Amino acid sequence: MRIDFALSFRLLLATLLSCSLAGCTGGAGNVHVYYLVNPVTVDEPVYRKEQPLAVEIMDLHIPQYLEKFQIAVRDGENRLKYSEYNQWGENLRKNLIRTMARNLAAMLATEDVGTPQNRSSSMPDYRLHMHIEQFERDQDERVRLVARWQLSDSKQPETLEMHSATLEGQSEIRGSDYDSLVAEMQDLYGQLCQQIAESIRGHETGE
């Protein structure tokens, strides 16, 4: 009986250790993957000025449900679902601010784009306030980006005008294809930044 008890104890211990190790790694197939929304490639600036513009991104707001590290998708008209193993590599709002700064710098041919984390020392020509109202895969499996922004001129404190955009991905992103999901989000965010750059060009040229 003692030999059987000792053998059973060793088998139980090995089983517990195996389960513990599986839990630490998320189990078979459950590996954490981390994503970022990166700047897009800009072949030609939207607008270029002999004296480069200075732009200050004053703030960028996203819905609170997007502040989680787990990537959110809509699973119904009033229902959200978060992925446990597909997550943002950093706070999404900070990622979007930094990426917008780099996109606008390329699209407006300027190095002088300030952010709340990296203020510019020069007086900005334009101040930008961003509000993102939706940015995730919708229940129809297409990514949607709904945003509005406000431009103000440092020489004229009053608001120049409000702008808005509703952008939709071209492809249906099914199931757990988070690589395609984030790639589509990056493309739509690049389109949003281009519309912002075009709104600045419009003010500059009077179009």
Structure characterization notes:
The protein is α/β, with parallel strands linked by helices. The protein has 2 domains: 1-31; 32-205, Rossmann fold (3-Layer(aba) Sandwich). Helix content is 32%, strand content 31%. The chain has 3 helices and 8 strands; from the N terminus they run αββββαββββα. It has helices spanning 2-24, 92-107, 178-205; strands at residues 33-35, 55-61, 70-76, 79-88, 113-114, 126-137, 143-153, 156-168. A hairpin with a 2-residue loop joins strand 3 and strand 4 (79-88). Helix 2 packs across helix 3 (178-205). The longest helix is centred in the last third of the chain and has 28 residues, at 178-205. The protein is elongated, with a radius of gyration of 23 Å. The chain starts with a helix and ends with a helix.
- Proportion of residues in extended strands: 25-35%
Helix content: 25-40%
How can the largest sheet be summarized? 5 strands, mixed
Extended strand count: 8
Class of the largest domain, according to the CATH hierarchy? Alpha Beta
Order of helices and strands: HEEEEHEEEEH
Envelope shape: elongated
Q: Can you tell me the CATH superfamily of the largest domain? A: ABC-type transport auxiliary lipoprotein component
For this structure, the CATH topology of the largest domain is Rossmann fold
Give the distance, in angstroms, between the N- and C-terminal Cα atoms: 92 Å
Mean pLDDT: 87
| Structural domain count | 2
| Integer-rounded radius of gyration | 23 Å
CATH architecture of the largest domain: 3-Layer(aba) Sandwich
**Spatial strand arrangement across the major sheet:** 5-2-6-7-8
Q: Which stretches of 5+ consecutive residues score pLDDT under 50?
A: 16-28
Number of helices: 3
